[in-house]
Amino acid sequence: MSDVCEILAEVKVVPVIAIDSIEDAIPLADALLDGGIPAAEITFRTAAAADVINLLSKERPQLYVGAGTVLSPENAKRAYECGAKFAVAPGCNPTVISAAQKIGLPFAPGVMTPSDIEMATSMGLTFLKFFPAGAAGGVPMLKNISAPYKHLGVKFMPTGGVTIDNVQEYLAVPEIIAAGGTWLAKQDMIANGEWDKITENCKAVIKLLG
Ligand code: 3PG
């Protein structure tokens, strides 16, 4: 497995973050770390995302920070320059994959069909985001769709519909190395400064996963 896969396999659960204000970056990171979750996917859905990645890479190096919703070569370049350790996207876009590969940014494109998986594997990628996991059929769908590609060593991080109620089911699948979700630290929880709640959510899933 790649370094990124090994690290995320240890982390198991990756909070998918939409953060509006740079002021909230450090309290958020500390809330996640206090809750026992040492990773985060900071999505490029807000204007603050790149600055947040940059700040956290410098000030909280113990948090393994990746970029999410990386939709363009520009997003990939910015994420890399800001110190993102990995990047993910909802879709499988060869232009973005090529850009990430060119700059050496580990990238997991989003897949939900065999054709998506083949697009990614034909470009040398085996770490893939399964999105939208729940709506696409959840664990049965992932098991079915990954079967023809297991021998290629494909690994998945499902996101979309993953919650504390079903995360164990996802993580029980050998091809799934980690699962992501917004439930741990939702955009409004961050905006409202609900740091204790975020820490509690992290602790709850850590306890559940033992
Ligand atoms: C993602 O960006 O990966 C998903 O939107 C997360 O979906 P969730 O809100 O269902 O966790």
Q: Predict the CATH topology.
A: TIM Barrel
Q: How many domains, in number, for the residues?
A: 1
The ordered H/E elements are HEHEHEHEHEEHEHHEHEHH
Proportion of residues in extended strands:
15-25%
Largest sheet: 4 strands, parallel
Q: Let me know the number of strands.
A: 9
**Silhouette:** globular
Number of helices: 11
Calculate the terminal CA-CA distance, rounded to whole Å.
23 Å
Q: Which distinct ligands sit in these coordinates?
A: 3-phosphoglyceric acid
The CATH class turns out to be Alpha Beta
Low-confidence stretches: none
CA-atom Rg in angstroms: 16 Å
Topology:
Layout: H1 3-11, E1 13-17, H2 25-34, E2 39-43, H3 49-59, E3 64-68, H4 73-81, E4 87-88, H5 94-103, E5 107-108, E6 110-111, H6 114-122, E7 127-130, H7 133-136, H8 138-146, E8 155-158, H9 167-171, E9 179-181, H10 187-191, H11 195-209
Parallel strand pairs: 1-2, 1-9, 2-3, 4-5, 6-7, 7-8
Helix pairs in contact: 2-11, 4-5
The structure holds 3-phosphoglyceric acid.
Give a brief description:
The protein is of the alpha/beta class. It has eleven helices and nine strands. The chain is globular, with a radius of gyration of 16 Å.
